[in-house]
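PROTEIN DESIGN WORKSHEET
SECTION A - STRUCTURE
LENGTH: 160
TOKENS:
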């Protein structure tokens, strides 16, 4: 009987330790502000990007460009514009489609109820808010460097 109680207590302790480790690996530590700034282009249409978390809002600033060599025709350029809009919809589904006039100009998106989640076990940083979500992978050699699905590289800083 005593060994069963001891065994139950040990299982309970191990379970609690596991829960604590799990919570520690997924950090939502009241991050007050964060900045994710693009430093390298991954050969995508996105030329510059900056994501800023400030006072529970996420501000996204982006500039896109088309590749005229692969879009010699109007239809080719339209296809590139459609790819840009598809990529934009992945992170902001309710965002309006960009037009040809928007290419080259700084685009700004403001997201309410923004937050940053750092998941050290998955090596991910996720920005999310109302109708918005963007996940970045941490670079193995430097957790302050992130990469997105388009292979653009970013510098990451935050304040708790």
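SECTION B - SEQUENCE
RESIDUE ASSIGNMENT:
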């Amino acid at each position: 009987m005593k060994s069963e109680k001891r065994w139950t207590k040990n299982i309970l302790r191990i379970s609690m330790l596991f829960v604590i480790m799990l919570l520690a690996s997924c950090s939502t530590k009241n991050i007050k502000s964060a900045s994710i700034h693009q430093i390298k282009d991954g050969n995508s249409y996105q030329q510059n990007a900056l994501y800023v978390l400030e006072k529970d809002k996420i501000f996204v600033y982006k500039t896109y460009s088309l590749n005229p060599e692969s879009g010699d025709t109007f239809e080719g350029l339209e296809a590139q514009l459609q790819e840009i809009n598809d990529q934009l919809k992945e992170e902001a589904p309710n965002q309006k489609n960009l037009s040809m006039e928007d290419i080259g100009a700084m685009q700004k998106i403001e997201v309410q109820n923004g937050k940053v989640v750092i998941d050290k076990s998955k090596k991910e940083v996720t920005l999310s808010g109302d109708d918005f979500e963007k996940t970045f992978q941490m670079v193995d050699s430097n957790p302050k460097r992130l990469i997105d699905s388009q292979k653009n590289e970013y510098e990451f800083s935050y304040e708790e």
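SECTION C - NOTES
DSSP finds two helices and ten strands in the chain.
The two ends are 48 Å apart (CA to CA).
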